[in-house]
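Format notes (please read before filing issues)

Several people have asked whether sequences and structure tokens are stored in separate files. They are not. Every record keeps both together, in the order shown below: the sequence lines, then the token lines. Line labels are part of the format and must not be stripped during preprocessing.
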Amino acid sequence: MANTIQDSGISSALLDKMNPKKKSAAGKTDVEETQDRFLTLLVTQMKSQDPMNPLDNAQVTSQFAQLSTVTGINKLNDALTAMASTYQTNQTLQAASMINHGVLTPGSGIDLTKGNALLGVDLNGAADKVSVTIRDSSGKVVRTMQAGALETGSHPLAWDGKADDGSTLADGHYKFEIAASQGGAKVSATGLQFGLVDSVVTNAKGVKLNVGSMGPVELADVRQIL
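Then the structure lines:
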């Protein structure tokens, strides 16, 4: 048998707070109660009016228009709240499908693992020259790679963990910088960091991805899913 409010230990006051749109004992919503109060006041006002100086029709019409406006705003707020809830639910489902997938998001870090690493570049325009400069933890340049010509948009790039002298570098965390140009003119470029999506976080501020060492990442910051 299902628990009642009393035997479940949940007070009715708490349920009322958790359900602000709950209907009153008379079965009316907040909007309906507001309309009833308005009409009661209007009827009282009309009953109490001076027969020699009755309410002006324009005044009554104006009051009804105000009620209509308030009611419309309340309904619009309810509709927007429902739409926001649906949108966040869809975002959560979309984000959940990305768990255990690699993503590229703005960043400048590289995690070298077993001689392999991924990074990326997001170009605001086509470039005939794109170079990647990789530095170790001390800031020393250990590798400079040429990615060649790339079109506008996001592009994943691989690093084999080799230094400029051909030696194999130790696994660990490195930093990189991107430089891009077209015909000698600089092209705006953003470095992209690779990470695996571990989980999804949903709260009042929206939906975020927990991506490895990068921590929470906005869905809008994901440039590519690999």
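For reference, the curators noted about this record: Residues 1-8 have pLDDT under 50 and may be disordered. The first strand starts at residue 102 and ends at 106.
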